[in-house]
Each structure stands twice: as C-alpha cells, then as structure tokens.
Amino acid sequence: MSYVGETLSNLLNQTAFFNLSVGNYVMIAVACVFLYLAIKKGYEPLLLVPIAFGMLLVNIYPDIIASPEETSNGVGGLLYYFYSLDEWSILPSLIFMGVGAMTDFGPLIANPISFLLGAAAQVGIFTAYLLAILLGFNDEAAAAVSIIGGADGPTSIFLAGKLGQSALMGPIAVAAYSYMSLVPIIQPPIMRFFTTKEERAIKMAQLRPVSKLEKILFPIIVTIIVCLILPTTAPLVGMLMLGNLFRESGVVHQLTETASNALMYIVVILLGTSVGASTSAEAFLNVSTLKIVLLGLIAFIFGTAGGVLFGKLLCHLTHGKINPLIGSAGVSAVPMAARVSQKVGAEEDPTNFLLMHAMGPNVAGVIGTAVAAGVFMAIFGV
User: Fold this and answer.
1) Cα–Cα distances in Å, from 175 out to 51, 146, 343?
2) Of 375, 298, 368, 291, whose CA–CA distance to 329 is shortest?
3) Which distant-in-sequence residues (6+ apart) come within 8 Å of 158 by Cβ?
4) In the 8-state DSSP scheme, what is residue 88?
5) By mean pLDDT, which of 176-190, 208-222, 253-267, 346-360 is the weakest?
6) Which has the higher per-residue pLDDT, 2 or 309?
7) How many CB atoms lie within 10 A of CB 33?
8) Contact 298/131 with Cβ under 8 angstroms?
9) What's the pLDDT tens digit per position in 100-145?
C-alpha cells in the first residue's frame, strides 16, 4: 500500500502544477491572448500561432529549451536545437530567401524614388537606438532593440544573434512580430495625423512596365553594390536577392516553388516556435522587456511618421504627383504595410489604387532594414 501511495505521490509531484511559478501562469495567459489574436482576429497567424504555442510550451515544460549541459542525459530539449538555428542566423536568412522568392520588385524598379521613402522610414531605428542608450542599454543591446523599428522580425533576430544579445532575443522577436501583426491598427492614426484629406486622395500615375531583363539584373546589381559596401549584410540581402533571382530568372521553377512555399513554411514553424520558447517567465517578465516593448512601439511610430513626412516632402517637390501615404509602407512589414496604405487611401477615394505604388517603398524598407543592421554590425566590428 505504501508503494502505491509513494508512486502516486511521485506522479503527482511530476505534474506541472507543482513546478510552475506565478510568472509561468502569466505567460501562459499571454500565449492564449496571442492565439486569440491570431486565430480570431487574423493578426499575422502564420507567425503568431507558432510563437504563441512555443510560449505556451516553454512555460509549462521549461526543459523543452534546455541546453545539453542542463539535462541529465546530455541531450538538449527539442526547441533548444531550433533556437540554435536562430542564434546562428540560419533561419532569418532562409526567411529572407523565401520573401525574395515571393516578392515582385517591379514597383521598386519602376519608381526608384521608392528607395528614398524606404530609407526615410528607417529613422525609427536610429531614434530608438538613441533612446535605448538613454534608458540604460549598452550599445550592442540598444542596436538589437532598435531594429524593431523596421517591423522586420527576421532582421531583429539576426542582429540580436550577431551582436551577442541572445538573452534579449525572445523579447525583441516577440515585440517585432507583435508590432508587425498590429500594423493595421498602429499605422492608420499616424498616417491620418500627418496628412490632409486632399493629400490622402491624391491619385498617382500608373507605373511604367518593367522588362524581364531589368528584373533579372536588379537582384544581381543590388547584391554586388550593397554587399561590397556592407559585406555583413550578405546573409540577409544575399538570400533576399537569391530568392528573387529564382523568381525572375524563369529557369528554376522548382527552386522558386520550394523557397516560397515548402521551405518558407518549414522555416516559419521552426523560427516561430523557437522564438516563442525563448519567452520563459524568467526571461520575459522583467523591466528590460517592458523597455523593449516601449522602445519598439516608439521606433515603429517614428518609422511610420518618417516615411509619411518624407512622402509629404516629395509630394510638394513633385507638385502633388506622389501620395504621402505610400511613405508609411517604408517599414518592411511586407505586404501588410502596403495594404494599409491602400486601405487608408481608399477611405478618401474608393477609386484610388495605391497598392502597387506602396509596394515600392515596402520592398525598399526590407532592404533598408537589412542595411541598417549591416551598419550596426560594421560599427561594432561584427
């Protein structure tokens, strides 16, 4: 009888109920909120569902991300190996290849001024960098946090890993992906605040046709120029352009299909769950996380405002030929930010179609955020 009682007692003590802290239950609740937003509200479900579920798992069973040194048999937890691929910058780079394979760079090629709008939206990154230093982060940590302003989760993870900020990677990634999913909520009020009704209703001339040769040469030329100037951007810019070259060359349909579908979704699963698993209560529930979330929001607001204000300047210089709303798409949340530009413009005039015009700054923002990350790596000698 004592044997049975002891066995039952051991089994009971092994349940998570006896091993979780209050913080773990808070994070479980946060994970459930994220799942609700992803499933019910449709906020970036491809990202939020795996992130939220990884968050759920690690706060119920922390050993799922334990390193080999922390386990009795020398074998790490399942998500530890997924997370290692984040730290080694493998998964973010593969995400970029998938994005390149799915993206048409034609609007950017047809309207090169989009590069300036994409660059202007990066002001949020450098604003957040200065604020992060004022809030007590060291230089490398401030740089890793500030890149959230580009609304680019893979680049945020990539830079945090390169700058040795693994301890902050979870909060940074969750903040970046959260703000990416909230683009339709955060951006429109800022866009309306900085523009007039007349500016929002501006119709832009149809983009010129882009030849196949231009589309093939673009990723090659961008890779050569950007990577010669900032070699550290090669993993991101190089993979982005390789994926796009697959798409535009027209001779590797199988590679294009794999990069933009099967491989892309496999990587999203691995990256999402591992990022979520880095948000244990001990790592996430602290003052630094609150600072990161706040700085990310500030960076995102400044990035959106910077793009819109530069769009207003171009609108003035071109005598009303450019709708300032497309500047907000300079943050690199592709293609959601471009869709928001279209939506806000259509509110003033349902016949106004800004989507393709906004895709130029949107794609430029992806490149711009990668370049900003390269600048930080060059500054810190990574």
Assistant:
1) 11, 11, 24
2) 368
3) 89, 92, 93, 235, 236, 373
4) T
5) 176-190
6) 309
7) 10
8) yes
9) 999 999 999 999 999 999 999 999 999 999 999 999 999 999 999 9
The pair of three-digit structure tokens given for residue 367, joined into one six-digit string: 């490149």
Rg (CA), the chain: 22
Residues 316-348 have pLDDT tens digits of 999 999 999 999 999 887 888 999 999 999 999
Half-sphere exposure of 18 (CA within 13 A, CB side): 7
CA distances from 93 to 96, 200, 238, 268, 281 (A): 5, 36, 9, 12, 28
Counting Cα atoms < 13 Å in the Cβ hemisphere of 196 gives 7
Three-point CA angle 288, 46, 308, nearest 5°? 65
The span from the CA of 117 to the CA of 362, in Å, is: 9
What sign results for the dihedral spanned by CA atoms 365, 370, 373, 378?
negative
Report residue 341: phi and psi, to 5°.
Answer: -60, -45
Spatial separation of the C-alpha atoms in residues 327 and 123, rounded to whole Å: 12
Specify the pTM: 0.90
- CB within 8 Å of 196: residues ≥ 6 apart: none
* Of 79, 13, 88, residue with least CA distance to 51: 79
Say if residues 363 and 103 touch (Cβ distance below 8 Å). Answer: yes
CA–CA dist 150, 136 (Å, integer): 21
Q: 118 with 331: CB under 8 angstroms? A: no
Contact 308, 195 (CB under 8 A): yes
Sign of the CA dihedral with 218 first, then 219, 223, and 224 last: negative
Residue labelled with tokens 């984040």: 86
**Two structure tokens written together for 60:** 């119920």
Tokens 């968050």 locate to 55
Phi/psi-derived region of residue 381, left when phi > 0, alpha when psi is between -120 and 50, beta in every other case: left
Q: How far apart are CA 132 and CA 376, in angstroms?
A: 14
Residues contacting residue 319 through CB under 8 Å, at least 6 positions apart: none
